[in-house]
C-alpha cells in the first residue's frame, strides 16, 4: 500500500530558481469581494440581453463542433469584424490586416512589449497611470521609466518631449482616457509625442480602453493612424462593450507593426470559442453599446454631484473624466473612506495619487447607493 506523499513538507525546502526581481512580487488584482454594489473595476453594469446570449450560445456551439482542430491562427474574419466596428465607432476605416487581437488588451500590449521592448530597452509612461504597464515591462525584461502627468492629469508637452529625448524609450504607453484619472489627451499632445517618438524611433501605444465613453469633441487617436506607422491604438471589449468576461482586446496600427506582433504571439492564442463569441457579440454591437449614452450621462451627473459635496470644510475635487469612472478626493485617510463604503456594501477602488479614490459608474440604483454611503461616511468622519 502506498501513502500519498506530503508534498507540502517534503518540498518545503526546495529552492526554486525564481528570477530575483520577482521574489517580492504578488499577483496583480483588485480585491474581488462579494458585496451588493460592485463599482471597483470599471465594468459595464448591464449584462447582455437574452438575444445576445442566444447568439453567442449558438455560435459557440458551432465552434465546439470543430474543437478537435486548432483555431485559425490569424483570425481574419474577426479582424474584419473589428475593423468594421472601428469604422462605425470612430469614422476611421482600417484594413483587417491592420487589426490585431488577443485575450484582453492586456495581452495585446504584452505582445507590443515582446516585439518592441526587451533587455537593454526602455518603456516609458507618465504617472499616474494604469498599474499594469510596469508589469508588462517587468515580464519582458524591459526597463521601466515614468515621467509625470500635470496637476490636472493631462500631459505637459514640453515635459513629455524632453523626457522622450532623454530616456530614448522604444515603447511609449499613453492611456487616453487615462486610468485611474479619466483624463483624455488633446490631439496636439498625442501628435507632439508621436513626433518626438519618430526621432528615436519608438512605438507609441495609445490605450483607448475607455474610448467609447469619451465626451463629444474628444478625438480618438485612430484618426492619426494613417500618417504614423509607429502608432498603435488599443481597444477592448471589456468596458463599453459589456464583455469583460469574454477577454477580447485589440489594436489598430500599420500592417508593418501588426506583422511584428504576429511573430511573438503564441500559436493559436485566441481560441475558436473566443473568436466565435467575439464575432457573435460584435454582430449585436448596437444592443451591447446601447447603455453607453446612459452611462455617460450618469457619469456627468455623478461628477456634478461630487463637486457639490464638501469634506473637511472644502468642496471635493473631481478629475475631468472621459471614461466610465470618476476619480475624486482628497481625503486625509482614503482607506477609512474606502472601508466605510465597503462596510455599507459598496466596493470602489483605492487607487491613484494619495488621498484620491476611484468609483466606476454603475446603474442608477448603484450610483444612488454609492452617494448615500459616501454621504454617510463623510458625515461620520466629520463628527
Ligand atoms: C481595463 C483596462 C484595459 C483593458 O484590459 P483588458 O485586458 O482588455 O480587459 C486596458 N487598459 C486600461 C487603462 C484599462 O483600464
UniProtKB/TrEMBL annotation:
What range(s) does the Aminotransferase class I/classII large domain occupy? 37-368
Catalyses: L-histidinol phosphate + 2-oxoglutarate = 3-(imidazol-4-yl)-2-oxopropyl phosphate + L-glutamate
UniProt cofactor(s)? pyridoxal 5'-phosphate
A UniProt-annotated Pfam family:
Aminotran_1_2
**Which superkingdom?**
Bacteria
Q: Which InterPro entries match?
A: Aminotrans_II_pyridoxalP_BS (IPR001917), Aminotransferase_I/II_large (IPR004839), HisP_aminotrans (IPR005861), PyrdxlP-dep_Trfase (IPR015424), PyrdxlP-dep_Trfase_major (IPR015421), PyrdxlP-dep_Trfase_small (IPR015422)
* Keywords on record: Amino-acid biosynthesis, Aminotransferase, Histidine biosynthesis, Pyridoxal phosphate, Transferase
Enzyme class, broadest EC rank: transferase
EC number in record: 2.6.1.9
Q: Which GO terms describe its biological process?
A: L-histidine biosynthetic process
UniProt-recorded Gene Ontology molecular function terms? histidinol-phosphate transaminase activity; pyridoxal phosphate binding
Q: In which pathway does it act?
A: Amino-acid biosynthesis; L-histidine biosynthesis; L-histidine from 5-phospho-alpha-D-ribose 1-diphosphate: step 7/9
Keyword Amino-acid biosynthesis belongs to the record: yes
Q: N6-(pyridoxal phosphate)lysine modification sites? A: 239
Which family does the similarity line name? Belongs to the class-II pyridoxal-phosphate-dependent aminotransferase family. Histidinol-phosphate aminotransferase subfamily.
PANTHER family assigned to the protein according to its UniProt record, in alphabetical order: HISTIDINOL-PHOSPHATE AMINOTRANSFERASE (PTHR42885:SF2), HISTIDINOL-PHOSPHATE AMINOTRANSFERASE-RELATED (PTHR42885)
Q: How does it assemble?
A: Homodimer.
Instruction: Write down what this protein is called.
Output: Histidinol-phosphate aminotransferase
Lineage runs: Bacteria, Bacillati, Actinomycetota, Actinomycetes, Micrococcales
Amino acid at each position: 500500500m502506498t501513502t500519498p506523499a506530503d508534498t507540502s513538507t517534503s518540498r518545503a525546502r526546495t529552492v526554486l530558481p525564481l528570477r530575483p526581481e520577482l521574489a517580492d512580487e504578488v499577483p496583480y488584482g483588485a480585491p474581488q469581494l462579494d458585496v451588493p454594489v460592485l463599482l471597483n473595476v470599471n465594468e459595464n453594469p448591464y449584462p447582455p440581453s437574452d438575444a445576445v446570449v442566444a447568439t453567442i450560445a449558438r455560435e459557440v456551439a458551432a465552434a465546439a463542433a470543430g474543437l478537435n482542430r486548432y483555431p485559425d491562427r490569424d483570425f481574419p474574419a474577426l479582424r474584419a469584424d473589428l475593423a468594421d466596428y472601428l469604422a462605425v465607432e470612430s469614422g476611421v476605416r482600417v484594413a483587417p490586416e491592420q487589426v490585431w487581437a488577443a485575450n484582453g488588451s492586456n495581452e495585446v500590449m504584452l505582445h507590443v512589449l515582446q516585439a518592441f521592448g526587451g533587455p537593454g530597452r526602455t518603456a516609458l509612461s507618465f504617472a499616474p497611470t494604469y498599474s499594469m504597464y510596469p508589469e508588462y515591462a517587468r515580464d519582458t525584461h524591459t526597463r521601466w521609466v515614468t515621467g509625470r502627468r500635470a496637476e490636472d492629469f493631462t500631459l505637459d508637452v514640453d515635459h513629455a518631449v524632453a523626457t522622450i529625448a532623454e530616456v530614448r524609450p522604444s515603447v511609449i504607453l499613453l492611456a487616453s482616457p487615462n486610468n485611474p484619472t479619466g483624463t483624455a489627451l488633446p490631439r496636439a499632445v498625442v501628435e507632439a509625442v508621436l513626433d518626438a517618438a519618430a526621432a528615436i524611433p519608438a512605438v507609441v501605444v495609445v490605450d483607448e480602453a475607455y474610448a467609447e465613453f469619451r465626451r463629444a469633441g474628444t478625438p480618438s487617436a485612430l484618426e492619426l493612424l494613417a500618417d504614423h506607422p509607429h502608432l498603435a491604438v488599443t481597444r477592448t471589449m471589456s468596458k463599453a462593450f459589456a464583455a469583460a468576461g469574454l477577454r477580447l482586446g485589440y489594436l489598430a496600427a500599420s500592417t508593418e507593426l501588426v506583422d511584428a506582433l504576429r511573430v511573438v504571439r503564441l500559436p493559436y492564442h485566441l481560441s475558436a470559442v473566443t473568436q466565435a463569441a467575439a464575432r457573435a457579440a460584435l454582430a449585436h454591437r448596437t444592443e451591447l453599446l446601447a447603455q453607453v449614452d446612459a452611462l455617460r450621462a450618469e457619469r456627468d451627473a455623478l461628477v456634478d454631484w461630487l463637486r457639490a459635496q464638501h469634506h473637511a470644510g472644502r468642496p471635493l475635487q473631481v478629475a475631468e473624466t472621459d471614461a466610465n469612472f470618476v476619480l475624486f478626493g482628497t481625503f486625509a485617510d482614503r482607506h477609512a473612506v474606502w472601508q466605510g463604503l465597503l462596510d455599507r456594501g459598496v466596493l470602489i477602488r483605492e487607487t491613484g495619487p494619495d488621498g484620491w479614490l476611484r468609483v466606476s459608474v454603475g446603474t442608477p440604483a448603484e450610483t444612488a447607493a454609492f452617494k448615500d454611503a459616501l454621504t454617510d461616511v463623510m458625515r461620520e468622519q466629520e463628527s
